[in-house]
Amino acid sequence: MTRSPFEDARRRVEDSLSHAERPAISCSFQPGGLVVLHLLGQRRRDVPVLFVDTGYHFQETLEFKDEITRLWSLDVRSVTTRQTMPSQQRYVGLLHRTNPDLCCEDRKTGPLFEALRPYDTWFTGLRREQAATRRDTGVVERRLLPSGAVVTKVNPIADWTSADLESYTEMNDIPVHPLLRQGYSSIGCAPCTARADTGSRDGRWGGVKTECGLHTSLEPDSVGLVSGTVRRPDGTD
Predict the structure, then answer these.
(1) Residue 48: which residues within 8 A CB-CB, separation 6 or more?
(2) Mean of pLDDT values over 94-105
(3) Rounded to an integer, what distance in angstroms lies between the CA atom of residue 75 and that of residue 45?
(4) Exposed (0-12), middle (13-18) or buried (19+): which is 166, by Cβ within 10 Å?
(5) Is 40 within 8 Å of 13 (Cβ atoms)?
(6) What are the pLDDT digits (tens) for 127-165?
(7) For residue 22, what pLDDT band results from cuts at 50, 70 and 90?
């Protein structure tokens, strides 16, 4: 009998937690991340939640984050860059307009990769269906951080469809980011996010790109790949 995607995801979370010594999850409080947070909460309530505070978030995002933090008693840890937003604008102008890749590296990817150094397992709400850049996402991957540390990246709902996501969210009464009811389908920094088709990331960065680099810039750990410790995309060994 074929298992449901929900049972598969639960099994993946349980298995990954059983092997993790220092797990964490990165979350921007969108549907995928909230689902994985909910799955984690069924097993452990103390997993640190890394929230990348770029300084450019919608106010609705910050308020929603605070609401979920209180509702689920989360251990949310804000990840920031050393340079404040006003300081960056004073010295280099509106970097998100002139060089969005560098802005993402400075305010998002760099700080998160540094924040991940103490952890050995990184949970995300990444799904293959979200974009062409994510279609090869594995359920379990090993990634090499800039520091040289290796982190096991777990994407337990990688193979879920949008329908799966919506169904699980409704079944478990998981709150939904308010901007998703206002025509936004993928929510990031306010200056770089516009309304777009449901489920699409086309509203990000004015169509110039669809990824900030969090999930595309890290190299696989070659040792892990050679030794066979990385599982296949279906989650099997």
Answers:
(1) 23, 24, 25, 75, 77, 119
(2) 76
(3) 8
(4) middle
(5) yes
(6) 998 878 888 899 999 999 999 999 999 999 999 999 999
(7) very high
Catalytic residue among 104, 189, 192, 212: 212
- Kindly give, in sequence order, each residue whose CB lies less than 8 Å from that of residue 167, ignoring residues fewer than 6 positions away: none
Concatenating the DSSP letter of every residue in 101-122 gives HHHHIIIIIHHHHHHTTT-SEE
For residues 188 and 53, what is the distance between their CA atoms, to the nearest angstrom?
10
Which residues pair with residue 102 across a beta bridge? Answer: none
The reported pLDDT for the residue numbered 76 is 98
- For this structure, is 192 an active site residue? no
Phi, psi of 156 (to 5 degrees): -65, -20
Identify the pLDDT of residue 175. 97
Cα 30 → chain centroid: 9
Q: Which amino acid is at 140?
A: V
CB contact at 8 A, 46 and 73: no
Chain mean pLDDT for the chain: 85
Length of the chain measured in residues = 237
Residue identified by tokens 């990634």 is 143
Question: Which residues on neighbouring strands pair with residue 153, listed in sequence order?
Answer: 122, 141
Distance CA 130, CA 118 (A): 29
Q: How far apart are CA 229 and CA 235, in angstroms?
A: 11
